[in-house]
Amino acid sequence: MSVQLINPGAEVTRRGLALHTTISAAKGLQDVLRSNLGPKGTIKMLVSGAGDIKITKDGNVLLNEMQIQNPTASMIARTATAQDDVCGDGTTSTVLIIGELLKQAERYLVEGLHPRSVTDGFDLAREELTRWIDETALERKIDRELLVEIARCSLATKVVSDFATVLSEIVTDAVLTIQREGQPLDLHMVEIMAMEHRTSKESRLVKGLVLDHGGRHPDMPKKVTDAFILTCNVGLEYEKSEVQAGFFYSNAEQREKLVEAERQVVDDKVNKIIALKRQVCEDSGKGFVVINQKGIDPNSLDLLAREGILALRRAKRRNMERLTLACGGVAVNSVDNLTPDVLGFAGVVYEQVLGDDKFTFVEEVENPYSCTIMLKGPNRHTIVQVRDAIRDGLRAVKNTIEDGRVLP
């Protein structure tokens, strides 16, 4: 009654009814997710208010997409999401365990046992379970075969078994590619690139990089072998000044001089890149590729195309770091004093066109510490489902390498 005096609009639920509502919410969420546990679990189809369809059996995706109103069910969903953030998997199992614990606790609560005694029992059980896991876990040599088995165990609950076998090797090799001795694993160095094309079983690992755009000039080569890679963040186009400035001229001749001066600044930058290309390639038959984070105007593209240089502009920022890790070299912010030491190297760089989309593959690199999983699928629903599965598989392999132990 005191709560209603403070807030007349508040809803007050008695102890017994509140307890029953809480346990019913947990059992309801458990019933929803029970059917999609394990390799034989069913796939759920979610339809949004706008009519968008999502097909998945990933517990984390289901909990994020479902509109949960009950506060207890919402708290359970957050707990499962936290499990996914830490381990990358186990969301469905978490919801089922919580629901079963509350279901068993209800039997004792009906008989009059105090809820505090039940929670103390849960705490004791958690400590005992943690001790049992530490005693049972086996320290084994972490090799590729073991990691493939771990990845297959995780992926088999998300995709069909045949595809899980293929995907587990891809995921394992991707993590082993980016592993560096004495440094923590950074899964952001594994790029997942989707291509709506053919079947999902044709997905593969590219020990290099796949960019979702291609050359912007028709005369540029579509394939370059033994290519030097220049990774840069240089504006090869006219750029407005960062400060408020104005140029005034009194006649057309002065205006033409202004335009020529602006053009000359950009041309000088391009000529320095061309000079570096001539220096390292000479008559060896090797190629040269420029990947720039900023823009390249048509005149600059034309100059580069005449020299047989493949140039990509406006590369994504996240790819700039991956490029240097995959190909070597150094990302430069200025073309002044360019030396061959800043260049990376790739055995082959080629462009693939699929409909209106262009993809540039950078492959056959030396000692790559970044890679790309080329994900293929016949439709968007399949690609989204497999992408979620790959994410869980990567985390499972990463956790095994970091922990160094497995449960039999």
The tally of strands reads 13
Helix content: 40-55%
Order of helices and strands: HHEEHHHHEHHEEEEHEHEHEEEHE
Distance, first to last CA? 55 Å
Structural class: alpha/beta
Treating each run of at least 4 consecutive H or I residues as one helix, how many helices?
A: 12
Strand content: 15-25%
Unreliable residue runs:
none
Lateral strand order in the biggest sheet: 6-11-10-7-8-9
Shape: elongated
Radius of gyration: 29 Å
Mean pLDDT: 87
Q: Mind describing the biggest β-sheet?
A: 6 strands, mixed
Structure in words:
The structure is a single chain. This protein has 408 residues and is of the alpha/beta class. Helices cover 48% and strands 17% of the residues. The protein contains 12 helices and 13 strands. It has a 6-stranded mixed sheet with strand order 6-11-10-7-8-9, with helices on both faces. A hairpin with a 5-residue loop joins β1 (44-47) and β2 (53-56). The longest helix has 30 residues, at 252-281. The protein is elongated, with a radius of gyration of 29 Å. The model has no long low-confidence stretch (mean pLDDT 87).
Topology overview:
Elements: H1 2-6, H2 15-34, E1 44-47, E2 53-56, H3 59-65, H4 71-87, H5 91-110, H6 115-136, E3 138-139, H7 144-155, H8 161-178, E4 190-196, E5 204-206, E6 209-211, E7 223-232, H9 252-281, E8 287-292, H10 298-306, E9 310-312, H11 317-327, E10 344-354, E11 357-365, E12 371-377, H12 380-403, E13 405-406
Helix pairs in contact: 2-4, 2-5, 3-4, 4-5, 7-8, 7-12, 8-12
